[in-house]
Amino acid sequence: MDFAKISRFIITVCLLSFSSISLATVQYVSDELVINMRSGKGNGFKIIKIVKSGTPLTILKQDSGYVLARTPEGVEGWVLKRFLIKTPVARTLLAKAQDDVAQMKEKYDAMVTELAAIKTERDTLSGSEQSLQSNKDKLNDELTKLKKIAARPMQLEKENNQLRNELLKTENENSILKQKYQTLEDNSDQEWFMTGAGVLFGGMILGLIFPKLRSGQRKANWNRL
């Protein structure tokens, strides 16, 4: 028995119950193989439909052990009341239970599939997170190297400025030393010049005096003779 058809039938019966003058109830064909639905009350009337066990029937009227009933397909006829029960037969209940189990299994399988997809997505995200962390560490290392490289020119510039200052200082010291050397050299030249002039002047004086001394000595020698 199709559970969807049964559900539609029950809904239809509920809607019809509000518009019907007489109260219509639903009963089920008992757990027999089939029953006959006839056009009238009695075995002498024409069979208009064979109704299977578990078929829900809408009860329209009751009379002399018979009931006027309507099938889910809309066929109306008389059936014996003793073949009807107020609850679904075991076969119908079993089918419904099996259908419920099948639906629950489908939901369970869907949940298992969804859980597997979530786990896969989680593993993927975990792998992506590890990859991002690794890339972050690499970028941090490169950034540190770049900072060192960027700081190197500034350090070189500082060292160059120090060398320039030292070079200027050395050049100034060399200039001062040159000036001192030039001054000493000039003083030495003056001393040599003065010494030479003194020697020359002394020589000139000796040159003037020495002949006179020799002339006077000669005269003295002649006088002795």
Radius of gyration: 69 Å
Contiguous runs where pLDDT drops below 50 for at least 5 residues:
15-23
How much strand?
15-25%
- Strand and helix order: HEEEEEEEH
Q: So what's the overall shape?
A: rod-shaped
Strand order of the largest sheet: 6-5-4-1-7
The description of the largest β-sheet is: 5 strands, antiparallel
The pLDDT mean sits at 75
Query: Structural class of the secondary structure composition?
Result: alpha+beta
Count, helices: 2
Please indicate the count of domains. Answer: 2
The tally of strands reads 7
Report the helical percentage: 55-70%
Quaternary structure annotation = single chain
Distance between the termini: 191 Å
Write structural notes for this entry.
The structure is a single chain. The chain has helices spanning 3-19, 90-224, and strands at 25-29, 34-38, 47-52, 56-63, 66-70, 76-80, 84-85. Strand 2 and strand 3 form a beta hairpin. The protein is rod-shaped. It folds into two domains: 3-88, SH3 type barrels (Roll), CATH 2.30.30; 89-184. It is an alpha+beta fold and 225 residues long.
